[in-house]
Every structure is written in structure tokens, then in C-alpha cells.
Amino acid sequence: MATSRANEILPVLEQEIVTGTLKPGTRLDETILAEKFGVSRTPIREALNRLSASGLVEIRPRRGAIVAAISVQDLMNMFEVMADLEALCARLAARRITPPEKAALRAAHESCHALSGSEDFDEYYERNLYLHDLLYKASHNAFLEKQVCELRRRLSPHRRLQVRIPGRILASSNEHGALVEAVVTGDAALAEKLTRDHVTIQGERFTDFLSTLPSHYLQASA
Amino acid sequence: MATSRANEILPVLEQEIVTGTLKPGTRLDETILAEKFGVSRTPIREALNRLSASGLVEIRPRRGAIVAAISVQDLMNMFEVMADLEALCARLAARRITPPEKAALRAAHESCHALSGSEDFDEYYERNLYLHDLLYKASHNAFLEKQVCELRRRLSPHRRLQVRIPGRILASSNEHGALVEAVVTGDAALAEKLTRDHVTIQGERFTDFLSTLPSHYLQASA
DNA sequence: AATCTCATTCTTGTATACAAAAAATCATTC
DNA sequence: GAATGATTTTTTGTATACAAGAATGAGATT
């Protein structure tokens, strides 16, 4: 590709972190990574710096880089902001969504809903992501869209913490149905409220789940 | 003594961009900067990369870095998000603020209010920043606080766009008074509403209008 | 006169070499 | 046998050298 080496390495590392191949706390040795990608340390350092800025990697001066290990407190804080930004997206989308975007949103919801009876969490998660992407786009605020997506990426390494309750897919899909309808009919206040409720429900489940956490997850981040 | 050269250079460059010494659109030649700081290009590149991630500079592949020139549309988008995050801060602060934080908030407001009759925009701006910092802190969400501060820094190079209307200081200070009172008395809904009204600069209708415009109508400011 | 092409030059991106700090290892001492 | 201190080793941070793509300018062509 016409892009530079660092630009090729960056998304690969990011993907490995996001998918959990590289787990939080893992040490990122520059020499080893350079060898692995067949480049010198220079583009590796550049990629690590960029990942550090986006929050996926933590760099301690003179002490190397590790995959960012977020404390539970940080996670809760980030969920709080995420909920608010998603609610903002919903409110704006309800006011600004275009006819073609409405059609795409409905189609995406149908695609999600088709799985509502199943327990295929991974596939539902994928289609769910796409539905939310459409909502972000419909806000017609590119900056907001980018912020929300980046925050979501940053949270995704800890996705394994999500609770997988039987029947939750159906409930989630129903909530989405109401939200999509509110956005399509232009009810901004309702769209915002439904989003908050939707995320809050997940948040409460998340909070409940915290009590069952392994203790090593409770250490504070430096 | 700072840990590394790049860590020394970064805040200097950032300050020059934020204060407007380096204006949006200015080219940032690596060799010239290296000479200016008496280092090699390596730490310069590292600093530029970090600034790029925080949004203060824009790096075009193989074409060098410039101080980020934000379009009017981007600016409106960022203000829209800023207003929402500040409102979230206010809501959380109203619920979580501690007694000592209440005292500090009242004192900061008094300090601002003392200038309410004057037209000293710069000094008012400084004290106003501090007041808002206290509000962010009172939200007791460190991640949110960091996000809001970073967004504010990112907007600050374009501060010249702020309208300086005679008598605006007094109006602003009165709005702050009501907001501080709402936070201190724990009225989260009111604090949120007052903040939205306060921060939203030109009204949602105008923002709506701008956001639906094709981007080529609004060129970058430089 | 304007534009297109090609060569030169300048700048960015990468590799390698070197310096300095932190980690690890080993030996000595209590 | 544990702890501490010095030495070795490893790893990060910086400088310099080199390669490749983009900007620039001169000359030719229409």
C-alpha cells in the first residue's frame, strides 16, 4: 500500500488489543514487535505512541509500554460518559436523520431482531454494533461520531466482562425497536430517554456483576 | 528535569498552539523545529504525533504537519459535544459535590463575580476557566474531566471566534450564579439545564442548519 | 502565454548506531 | 539463609544516515 509502515502496523496492533489477543497488562517490547512485523523500532514506537494517545496503550517513561489496564472505577466512569454521548447521538439523530438513513436504520434493526430468539451473542453483538454505528452517523455530527466510536473501541478490550444472560437478546432487541421508532418519527426527547434507559439497564447489570469480579481486576490504575 | 526531550517539547508546542502563537494552518517543519529546540528530528516527530492524536495538529502522510485548521462545521460539532459533556458534569456534580468543593466553588464564583461590572475579558476568562475546572472535578468522574479539558484545549486556538459583547460578562456571571446555586443545593436537573442554556452559544436551530449543509459550503478556516 | 514533462531538490519515513537509564544478576556481607 | 550493593545486561530514548515520495522549477511544446 501507499501508506507507511507505521500506518500498516497501527491497525493490526489495535485489532489485537481490541479483540483481546493482547490482554490488558501485556508488556509491549519494542524489539520483539519490530521483529514480529519485520521493521525497525522506529515505526513501532510511532504506532505505540498513537495507541497511547487513543488510550489503548499505556506508556510509562523509560519503562516501556503495556496494553492499558483500566481500573473498575475508570470503567464505570467511561460507561457513564458513553451513555451520555449515545443519548446525545439519539437526540440529534431524531432531529436530523434523512429518509435513506431511516430505511438503513430499520433494515439494521430487522437484521438484529432476526436473532432475537437465538443465543448467538457474538453475531448479535456484530449486528448491534452496526445498528449503533448508523445511529451515530444519523446524528450528523462527525466529531461526536468519532468520539463515541473511539470510546467504544477503548472499552472493547474489556468486553468479556459483559454479562451474557439468556433472554437478554430479546429484551435488548425490543428496546432497540422502540428507540428506532422514536428516532424515525423524530421524537428527540423520547429517543434520548430510551437510550439512557437502555444503557442504564446494561449499567445496572454491569454494576451487579462487579461484585463477582476476580480481585485482580480491582487494582487501581497508575 | 523532565524525563525526556520529547516530554519537554510537547507542552511548549502545545502552549504555542493553544495561545495562538502558532496559528491554525501553520506548517510545522520537522527540521526547523528540531533546530529551534536544539534536538534531532526524532523527539520532534514524537511530539507532533502526540499533538496529532490530541487533535491540535494535523498530519498528512508524506506531506508534513500543520496546526489543525478546523472548519466551521467541525467547530459547531465540537461545541455541541462540549455543551453536552459540560451538562453531564453539572448533573453529576450536583449529585456528588462534597462540602469543601462547595466552598471552593462559591469562592471561585465570587472571584468571577467581582469582575462582572468590568470589561476585562481576559482576566474574566481565566477565572471562568477555574470555575469550570472546579465543576468538572466535582463531577467525580476523572475520565469525564479529562475529556472535557482536552476538548476545551482543542477549541482554545479558535477562541478568537468568541463574541465579546459589552455587558456579556455580567450576564454570564449571573448565569454562573444560578448554576452554582443549583449544584450546591443538589438540583441535578436544574444544573444540567442551566449549563446547556449557558454553553449553547448560538442556539440549536442554527446548529441544525449548519449540520445539514454539505461540507463544501463551509471551507476550513485556513 | 499557458501547460505539460522531466529532472532537481526538499521533506518525510525508516533503519541503524549510540547513550543513558532501568532491570536483572551475581557476589559479598551480616 | 536473607539482604544489600555492585556489575552486567537489557531496554528505552536520541542522533544520524539513508531511502523514497512530494514539491519545485526549467525547458519544451501547443
Give a written overview of the molecule:
The structure is a homodimer of 222-residue chains. The mean pLDDT of chain A is 89. Chain A has a 3-stranded antiparallel beta sheet with strand order 1-3-2. In chain A, helix 4 packs across helix 6, helix 4 packs parallel to helix 8 and helix 5 runs antiparallel to helix 8. Chain A is mostly helical. The radius of gyration of chain A is 19 Å and the shape is elongated. Chain A is built from 9 helices and 3 strands; from the N terminus they run αβααββαααααα. In chain A, 67% of the residues lie in helices and 5% in strands. The longest helix of chain A is centred in the middle third of the chain and has 25 residues. Chain A binds a DNA duplex (30 and 30 nucleotides) through helix 3.
Write the layout of secondary structure elements.
Two copies of one chain form a homodimer.
Chain A: H1 5-19, E1 27-28, H2 30-37, H3 41-54, E2 57-60, E3 64-67, H4 72-96, H5 99-113, H6 121-138, H7 142-155, H8 168-184, H9 188-210
Antiparallel strand pairs in A: 1-3, 2-3
The structure holds a DNA duplex (30 and 30 nucleotides).
